[in-house]
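yo

u said u wanted the structure for the complex thing, so here. seqs first:
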Amino acid sequence: MKMIIVKDDLEGAKLGLKIIKESLEKDALKTIGLATGSTPVSLYNLLRESDLDFSNTVSVNLDEYVGLSGDHPQSYRYFMETHLFEAKPFKKSYVPNGIADDLNKECADYEKIIEENPVNLQVLGIGANGHIGFNEPGASFDSVTRVVDLVPETIEANSRFFKSIHEVPKKAISMGIKTILKSDKIVIFAYGTNKASAIKKMLENDITEEVPATILKKHSDVTVIVDEDAATLLNQ
Ligand code: F6R
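structre next:
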């Protein structure tokens, strides 16, 4: 894993932009995997303002809440439309449909979409509990896209976006860990002291399903971009 410590999320976003730009210029960005949440917002701001052209790139998002339609302001489809896609259209943008009648079929179809559009570069955030996508502690490293239960810690963390914690969906569709690991390249970002423990565990613990992000050590091309706050607990 390549580790880069930056001053703040703007510096992290600039590095992310550079990596994406280089992939585009090499014509090596047929498909990009995207994340939602607070972490990638600075990157999406820079992408929106950039002159990069994604009209030949497909995007696939990591996850979506079950029960929220794409026009719900807290859905991840809505997040992506407003933070990126409206200003920067992609060739095609896939986000799982959280209100599909048959959620298991939706998951199988999504996995097929990723098989047909292998991800060249996956953007990741990390949960304070070490989750990637919505693969919570204990998720199998062999997992593929499926419906998952969010753990109380994640529901609590994400309640900041909702009027009340009771409105936070308890389930989501998430790419699996096996699915994420198929990406040619992975860039994982983490900012703030609340991510410091997860970053320490990811980098310094043995690989364990109890800390899903530890599996990234097995991938041959991972760049970890963290700010000074998220790096505070690391052994130097
Ligand atoms: C989002 C996702 C999650 C987040 C993680 C961190 O699509 O898959 O794994 O990346 O929960 O969220 P933030 O960035 O809001 O701290």
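The radius of gyration is 16 Å. The first helix runs from residue 9 to 25.
cya
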